[in-house]
Amino acid sequence: MKPLTIRGTALSVGLFFDVTFVLCVVWGLVVPTRLETMAKIWEALLPGFTWLTPASFALACVELFLYGVYVAVVFVPLFNFFEGGRPSGVTEAMDERPVPRAAAG
After folding, report:
1. Which has more confidence, 78 or 37?
2. What is the DSSP string of 55-80?
3. Nearest CA to 57 among 38, 36, 40, 42?
């Protein structure tokens, strides 16, 4: 199994957090009864964020992307360390497949 890279994981997790945030904002605008609760949650999680100005939306996207980078910087070395010398389960399962026998003639 190839080791994870910090760059690929950081981009993936950072963009995942951003997409999730955008979907939550859209959901909060579509379902206004949830707006008050969702706004309080995001304001508690993201320093400097206030619901919903263009500047705070951009700030939240930057902050969430940086949180994703942080997750990658911590997670990837730990994952690679603990999975270092172990072969992947897929390879093991494929090695244990029975070999088909030739048809008797």
Report:
1. 78
2. HHHHHHHHHHHHHHHHHHHHHHHHHH
3. 42
Tell me 34's DSSP state: G
d(CA 39, CA 59): 15
pLDDT, tens digit, for every residue of 56-102?
A: 999 999 999 999 999 999 999 999 999 876 665 655 555 565 666 66
52 prior amide bond cis, ω within 30: yes
Of 71, 60, 62, nearest to 24 by C-alpha is 60
- 3 state SS of 47: coil
**Which of these, 62, 60, 16, lies nearest to 38 by C-alpha position?**
60
Q: Fill in the DSSP letter of residue 1.
A: -
